[in-house]
């Protein structure tokens, strides 16, 4: 116990620098030789440091407590609360704005897509209501075709009945025929065949997609030109005027009778009439005649949702189209002449007309 | 330029703190406490929590400043704020276990190292505190006077009515040995 205390005293003197040079040298030697003493010295050094540290910290703590007492806590508290509330409000507001923006975006997308879907549906509906009356000829009986071929064995009519069929009619004596664009659209080759069973090769020389009209030219040496018995009526016809048509919904020419039921076509198309007339696939491109035997329109399609409603492009439009046609096509403008059919009864009119109405066969 | 000036001012304050300059301490304390108070209140702490956390941060700062090799790279305010945040976060996590860390509590400046370093020193302080608390008077005061207040042995002898400084010194050594024993007993077991 006594020794320990003496050692402690020595260590303290050593560390505090109270030893004389000689004493210090002796003690250093002792430290070096006796690891236990060395350890005690280090331990003491550490301990004193700890003690001082403790004191410093305590005094710091005391000072801080003192300072803290001096703080104006109520004011600080109030400030902090106010600021926190403000921050909360701002963050709430920010969150609200973010949410609102997200909601607005969703609403915008929803409404836009709804509009798009509805418009698409409306479009689908209207195209569904309208139907071209060209004919798919795949299921025409071979026997009938063969019979025709037999009769016209001199002709070069293809044995294949074609993929699609429509009707066309002559607009000039030298082999120009008008039909619907949708009949000949995408065609590899086009043949026209009259009621006598004579078939001629034809080429499309002019097409107008917007009014769904196409002009074909018979490119066949066997074709003999003959004057047209009818004219294109340049004026619009009156509502309720009686009209008739002749077309090829089957391999035989078919006569149909009806009246102009509206002055505009499908969806208010002003270049067309609405006609109450029975039409069937194959009637596309058929001429629409008035009682005098003048061409007043070209049958293009019908409404699928109701029976007996067909549409026909106005002859005035056709006339404009023919006028626009490039002059070098060599079409004779003899169509404007007066009709030869006026005053004849319907049967005679038909008899004269049927030579100029052709079945259009399309291969593709 | 402004920030540079700010940091210069903060560095001066830090030096003052290391010198135990009361004015510097006061400036640091009064300037930074409100921010920390606000932060602690915002995160479900009380005013006392704020005080504890802030004082702990100051102690850390003080220790750092005393070590001398502490280079203040950010503003003092930022440093104290992130240290406080870290301490509070640790406290909350240890108290409530699975308490989820609010995303805004994510640290601006990583203070993990600083705080972890401090915890060793804090442990030593606690041991010393309990040792000092259990040796009793007059040992406690004698040791404090000598080692902390740096009073001379003569002063202490006068204060406690010892006949001479040598007697007082003997008494001091006895006390010191007891304290050392208490301290190292606990210190070695805790390590």
Written overview of the protein:
The complex is a heterodimer of chains A (364) and B (191). The longest helix of chain A has 57 residues. In chain A, helix 1 crosses helix 3 and helix 2 packs across helix 3. Chain A has three domains: 69 residues; 57 residues; 229 residues, Thrombin, subunit H, CATH 2.40.10.120. In chain A, strands 8-9-10-13-12-11 form a six-stranded antiparallel beta barrel. Chain A is α+β, with helices and mostly antiparallel strands. Chain A is 42% helix and 23% strand. Chain B has 191 residues and is mostly helical. Chain B folds into two domains: 109 residues, Orthogonal Bundle (Rna Polymerase Sigma Factor, Chain: A); 76 residues, Orthogonal Bundle (Arc Repressor Mutant, subunit A). Helices cover 77% and strands 0% of the residues of chain B. Chain B is built from eight helices and no strands. Chain B is globular, with a radius of gyration of 21 Å. The N and C termini of chain B lie far apart (47 Å). The model of chain B has no long low-confidence stretch (mean pLDDT 76). Chains A and B meet through helix 1, helix 3 and helix 4 of A and helix 2, helix 3, helix 5, helix 6 and helix 8 of B.
How is the biggest beta sheet of chain B arranged? none
Distance between the termini of chain A: 123 Å
Strand order of the largest sheet of chain A: 8-9-10-13-12-11
Largest interface, with counts of residues having CB < 8 Å to the other chain, equals: A-B, 35 and 40 residues
Residue-averaged pLDDT of chain B: 76
* CATH fold naming of the largest domain in chain B: Rna Polymerase Sigma Factor, Chain: A
| Number of helical stretches of at least 4 residues of chain B | 8
Gap between N and C termini of chain B, in Å? 47 Å
Please tell me how large the radius of gyration of chain A is: 52 Å
Gyration radius of chain B (Cα, Å) is 21 Å
Counting DSSP H or I runs of 4 or more residues, the number of helices of chain A is 8
Classified by CATH, the class of the largest domain in chain B is Mainly Alpha
Number of domains of chain B: 2
Broad structural category of chain B: mainly alpha
Q: Provide the low-confidence segments of chain B as ranges.
A: none
Helix content of chain B: over 70%
| Proportion in β-strands of chain B | under 5%
